[in-house]
Amino acid sequence: MSSSVTYKLTHKMFYEGLKEGKLLGLKCNSCNTYTCPPKINCAQCNSLDMDIVELNGKAEIKTFTVVRVCPEGFEGELPYVVALAELEEGPWVCGRVVGVDPDKVTMDIIGKKATVGGKIPPKLSYAPGEPMAITLKIS
Amino acid sequence: MRKVAVMGVGMTKFGPTEKSQVELFAEAAMEAINTSNIKPKDVQALFLGNGLGDFEEGQLNLAGFCANELGLPPETTAMRFEGACASASIAIRNAFLLVASGAYDIVVAGGTERALSMGTSLATRTFAMGTDSKYEEFSGLTFPGVFAMLAHLYADKYNVPLPKLKERMAMVAVKNHKNGAKNPLAQFQKEITVETVLKGFVVADPLQLFDCCPFSDGAAAVIVTTDEIAKKHVEKPVYILGAGQGSAGSLCRQKDYTIMPSRIASAKQAYKMAGVEPKDIDVAEVHDCFTIAEIVLLENLGLFEFGTASEAVEKGETEIGGKIAVNPSGGLKAKGHPVGATGAAQVYEIVKQLRGECGARQVENAKIGMTDTLGGDAGSIVNLIFGI
Ligand SMILES: [Zn+2]
């Protein structure tokens, strides 16, 4: 038997999923919790026994900011809203909030429901491959 | 484990400079060597904190250049430690561990950085490299953004109305600028008011310009050695009583990061090793990269109960002369934040405070001091506890 370990859901596969409108994650067969974004083992119990699953993409905004001074590359998108959201399956994700006016966002956005999607970010230096950003569309 | 002490310490003025990272470190380290009453040839290892030197000057492998610059012998172990903003604290903790274990007797440890050389745009880009580059960075998240989200999380969780929290956050900046005004090595030596903070432009809602520490250049270094050697060379050795370090992953993985398990674990290790409790700390130099960061870390270090630190700031409990003096040097906010040098500058201040050499910003009767340094979004945390 081989002792090698293969990364089940790489960031590239995760990005491909987002591109097709799917939020991929891992479901643990030991503790039944979900890991997203992916990791080599379960975020809860470290088990390697996990299956790739499609999560339902429903989330709730937990916190946010409106970025007004950006890293090199994002100038054309200013101002923009970034948030942390809790997925229905448990994990939190960090993403770009879409469908809101950044200048009108207040703390009332906390607790709002959002749908997870993906978008291609601007070309950044020191970022190999085809990048994808998580988006959070306020419903 | 052997008892470990800090002998001499050295630090450049923080702020814009035209000196190179090697030149900056050489100044700080030579001061530390000279005030330890030792010679460069007595040093066996050089541990260098550096965050972004590659981007700042196109210079890799800085540690060897620094060792040669100082005239350290060819058998010197010279290494760079990178843990984002906690780099120098990691270097000093490793110096402590290796002197304690008997591997080395005398180590020069510290850090150097020229963040200002990059300009705001590249600096913001490279600082953002401290967040998860696969799952968070592409959202356009910045470091101010990370702490801006922390402020909203805090206000929501503890039910502090945002305007109230922002006023208390401003008071952190006011306090640290007040202290920095008394520190001749600080980047900003000017007092500000709550109005100054609340008038600043918004960097990332709800953080305004004066909620954020500056980009800085600078270096700091300390000589870590045994109790025995220290007593032979200096009048007032300061002892490293305890050290801790913790780690964490992406922000999203940490979920509600008003509570930071990596910081709690790191502090717990340090308190346990030192045999002290949070209430025993007289003076603390902590990682106030943003005003909200100081409030949240005070709770994670156990210096204040969860949810109460913003009120403690308002009551003046963190001022020099308060319940616990927090950032008498001016902190990252006013003293400056040259990433890879920051932890060493914190140790510099605590050593000077415990020796009673801080003049107008001296904390009376300071016997036990602590440092707290955060790298990335809590990916690396180091806590060190010092005594006399
Ligand atoms: Zn599991």
Largest interface: A-B, 43 and 42 residues
Profile the largest sheet of chain A: 5 strands, mixed, barrel
What is the top-level CATH class of the largest domain in chain A?
Answer: Mainly Beta
User: Taking all residues together, what is the mean pLDDT of chain B?
Assistant: 97
The CATH architecture of the largest domain in chain A can be given as Beta Barrel
CATH architectural category of the largest domain in chain B: 3-Layer(aba) Sandwich
Can you characterise this structure?
The complex is a heterodimer of chains A (139) and B (388). With 139 residues, chain A is mostly beta strands. Chain A has 2 domains: 11-55, no CATH class; 58-138, OB fold (Dihydrolipoamide Acetyltransferase, E2P) (Beta Barrel). Helices cover 6% and strands 37% of the residues of chain A. In chain A, the strands form 2 sheets. In chain A, strands 4-5-6-8-7 form a 5-stranded mixed beta barrel. In chain A, strands 2-1-3 form a 3-stranded antiparallel beta sheet. Chain A is globular. The mean pLDDT of chain A is 96. Chain B is an alpha/beta fold. Chain B has 2 domains: 4-119 and 216-239, Peroxisomal Thiolase, Chain A, domain 1, CATH 3.40.47; 141-214 and 240-387, Thiolase/Chalcone synthase (Peroxisomal Thiolase, Chain A, domain 1, 3-Layer(aba) Sandwich), CATH 3.40.47. In chain B, strands 3-2-4-7-1-8-12-11-9-10 form a 10-stranded mixed beta sheet, with helices on both faces. In chain B, helix 4 crosses helix 15 and helix 7 (162-180) packs across helix 12. The longest helix of chain B has 19 residues, at 162-180. Chain B starts with a strand and ends with a strand. The relative contact order of chain B is 0.20. The interface between A and B is large, with 43 and 42 residues. The complex binds zinc ion. Residues 28, 30-31, 33, 42, 44-45, 47 of chain A line the site of zinc ion (ZN).
